[in-house]
UniProtKB/TrEMBL annotation:
Pfam families: PMSR
All copies of domain Peptide methionine sulphoxide reductase MsrA, residue ranges: 5-138
InterPro entries, A to Z: Met_Sox_Rdtase_MsrA_dom, Met_Sox_Rdtase_MsrA_sf
Family matches, as SUPFAM superfamilies: Peptide methionine sulfoxide reductase
Reaction it catalyzes: L-methionyl-[protein] + [thioredoxin]-disulfide + H2O = L-methionyl-(S)-S-oxide-[protein] + [thioredoxin]-dithiol; [thioredoxin]-disulfide + L-methionine + H2O = L-methionine (S)-S-oxide + [thioredoxin]-dithiol
Enzyme class: oxidoreductase
Name under which the protein is recorded: peptide-methionine (S)-S-oxide reductase
Highest taxon, organism lineage: Bacteria
Keywords: Oxidoreductase
Organism: Photobacterium arenosum
Enzyme nomenclature, EC number: 1.8.4.11
Length: 173
């Protein structure tokens, strides 16, 4: 298993997307910092099996499920980043980001940064979506991202999670 960090949207949203994938083991949401950046931003750490899902696919899904080209006012809280755990993983993430740029009309703002620290969220809010799929926040904010996952990356969705995703309200899909 390898570890990578991802940030760019609220950690509940990002966590739900990546908990839904085949080849992803543990997902922890919380606050991440990168080397050279003092401030922490919302994000996740995930452990994945590179034989089942590669870094390129993880980054591609990440870019499509958050505003990777928008330099909005909350970017300090939601830093669009891949947090790499080694120089090799950081270089691989940079290559992936460059290769994926042609799929987007605007420049991708997502950076490949070196992981520095992680502070997990409280235990009670971990696995937020799958513990509370009917809550208004889940329906309004997380479900649209999961609909993108289901429509564009259906072959990557874990069959154990698929039944929940297929129950999303029709007007959100």
């Amino acid at each position: 298993m390898e570890t990578v960090g991802l940030g760019g949207s609220c950690h509940w949203c990002t966590e739900a997307v990546f908990r839904s994938l085949k080849g992803v083991g543990e997902v922890d949401q919380g606050w991440l910092s990168a080397q050279g950046h003092e401030e922490m931003s919302e994000g996740i750490l995930l452990r994945f099996d590179p034989a089942r899902i590669d870094l390129y696919t993880l980054i591609q899904i990440h870019l499509y499920t958050h505003s990777c080209t928008s330099n909005h006012a909350l970017r300090h809280r939601y830093r669009s980043a891949v947090y790499a755990f080694s120089p090799d993983q950081q270089r691989a993430a940079q290559v992936c980001l460059k290769a994926l740029q042609p799929e987007f009309e605007q420049p991708i703002l997502t950076q490949a940064l070196r992981f520095d620290a992680f502070q997990p969220s409280r235990h009670e809010i971990q696995n937020y979506f799958y513990s509370n799929p009917q809550k208004p926040f889940c329906q309004m904010r997380i479900s649209p991202k999961l609909s993108i996952l289901l429509s564009q990356f259906s072959d990557r969705v874990d069959d154990r999670k698929r039944h929940v995703l297929e129950q999303l309200p029709v007007d959100i899909k």
